[in-house]
Records
---
Amino acid sequence: MRLFYWRMKPMYDIAIIGGGITGCFLARQLCRYALKTVLIEKNTDVADETTKANSGIIHSGYDACPGTLKAKLNRLGNPMFDAICRDLGVPFQRIGSLTLALSEEEIPVLQQLYERGQANEIGGLSLLSAEAVRKTEPRIHSRVKAALLAKTAGIVDPFGLAIALAENAADNGTDIRLNSRVVGIRRENDGYVLTTPSGWIKARYVVNCGGVFAGEINELLSPARFRIRPVKGEYIVFDKQVGDLVRHVVFQCPSEKGKGVLVTPTVHGNLMVGPNSQDVEDKEDVSTTRSGLDEILATAGNSVETIPLPLAITGFSGLRASADTGDFVIEELSGYRGFINAAGIDSPGLTASPAIAELVIDLLKSGGLKLTPNPAFDPIRKPIVNVVNLSEEEKSELIRKDPRYGRIICRCESITEGEIVEAIRRRVGARSVDGVKRRVRAGMGRCQGGFCGPRVLEILARELHVSRCQVVKDRGASYLLSEQ
């Protein structure tokens, strides 16, 4: 009976390990072909680690070292976002970026960045005088001497994009396995067997998109040829009241630690500053610290005259997966045909992610995967309705059909019960309070869920048919209520 059950288990063409932005982009791009694909994520939701703590910047591509994968894939990925975000109903804005010279000594650095951008074939770059910078951004610090303008830079909702990609992939036939940590990998003649606590998954090809844990995934098969170093970055988010403090993404000149602390508007109308950069050992350490947040404020204050600290509404941190190779690691694992690593995807990983997906597909094709176009592929994903942006007539008609769209649950963001219910009931729907927050922004406003949190919990319990004590904030055992 055991052997019979083994043979009856489905064989996937491709198993993707990791439901961050890289894994979700790959899952969605693979739907263009007649393949059986599974996306495996260890957490309760996709986009639940690095992707949910991303700055959301679509980089122009001037900064990466010419000749690297980072430079090539940034250049290829950047122009892909307009069509992708339009098809998926995800907000995206090309607002441009300014990289500031805060002293006369840094002006040659801007010239070097401009020349590097030319080598990387990046258009829309120009050097601005101090006077031109202040005309462009009136609140920029008076010490600024010059700036590099990159017109093709943009901003996006990173976790909203990953969720949309996963939804569209699921709508097109991809299996999504959540709460499925891969704890073992074994090669067989016709593919690989992946072991999870809930059972095993068999696939002919495997792609490792494991983020900060990509090294551990690789080591389930082979000694590591790269090491992933987690780098923590902290951020502060400000109320929408000051969302227009700057109109561009504002950088300082980069250092050996990366692109440094930025000041940027978000696609949802907030202001955000960060991140700093700190090497950590714990790959689960997403704590924030007083010293870290003070560092962010002090550094950002060199870019913009007045950072309005009283209007800060939350702080958070995330971990970047930095490879010791200094570049993305995107290659077939030597000696293991059909096993592809897509590792070390730190900045500009979000920007590069659609191009990373295309490169991985090319590697799979080179490894023997047959790519037959899927005639049923539908690239369009209908977003969750946002009631506050509807006309009065549209609101009235929607509420007439479903009164839940007339009940405000989150006052800060004007999110209704109908929107929350839809977020839960969709494919790859919300299964936690933070899952709802990331899909419809209930709890993202000034009170950070202080008012709406209990109601969101009740709606989740009702829709998931569980007790309120079983509802989690985010993942694992992050329960909000106790029966005691």
---
Amino acid sequence: MKYYILTLAFTIFLGSSACEKEIKRLPTSNVKKEVHFAGTWVTNVASDALNSRANIIQTVATCKASGVNNIFVVVWNQGRTLYPSDIMQNTFGVRIMERFAGRDPLQEMIEEAHKENIKVHAWFEYGFAASNNQNGGLIIQTKPNWAARDFSGNLLKKNGFEWMNAFLPEVQDFMTSLILEVVNKYDVDGVQGDDRLPALPSEGGYDTYTVNLYKAQHNGANPPADSKNAAWLNWRSDLLTEYWGRVYQQVKARKPNVMVTNAPSVHPFAKNEYLQDWPAWLDKGYTDMVLPQVYRYDFAAYRATLAQQLTYLKPQFKTKFYPGILMQNADYNPSEQFVIQMINENRASGITGESFWFFEGIKKFPSYFETYNKGK
């Protein structure tokens, strides 16, 4: 009755036609279309997506048609940048990965993706890994004191990757300088580290600098010989957490709207094997989004791993959590049914988006991605 009286009075005051227009407008004036997160990684390996500007235009078009609104484009791989870098030129004499000389794939991607309202994140894929099966590559050959060391004093290697010492201030400063170079020079929407940033294989930390730092904080005691010792794991992972906190703060100081995101391994594997304590990054406010690599080859394993990850996630951080889904690895692609099952499981778990590893896999499922993330 109150509503009727108020409406009648409003009609008399404005006139019936004006009131009808107002009443018709009100229901839709505050309606906002919900935008879901959908990402994919664009690589320079096993893909020609970055080989030319024409290919980048096609990559963006495919993402647009597939409902993907965030592109994580590689900018750091095998000790090379995929953009012209003054820092790399001055430090190592190589301005850009040789095959991209004369171009700027990052700038091209930003220009083309932004035309389609797709966000672009600079993805520092290799992080603190210097090279892959190159005995340290250009970085360690040029700066041998940057090498990470295992308990035997050898160059730290794991799964084919050779590592810089992620605890050494000079190495940290170098990595930070690359990230800030991109933030300062480019209109990126975000920067991202993955399972190698911030990270170090837990077999590392036995170099002279890190051992002396540990001894200074532990009454002269040497680090445990057991690289998986819990206190030793915590001490080293805390160092990397605080490093990433400094990166986060420096990025935000320059451009507050640039997102700082991470795509680590799943927890607790990430911490036990690579000193990545991403629940702590969320707790401390050192990341805007976590995309753990929930890469599994059957639905039961995916469901179990996702459920496990959610046990480490505080409810207030659920809007910052988007799983990575495996779409392609060498010759492997999941079935379309499996893709649908994984995405449906995300939604059933209250997760509103995901990111796909990697871009080439999306092209294998055109019929599904015609409707994905488009409200159809």
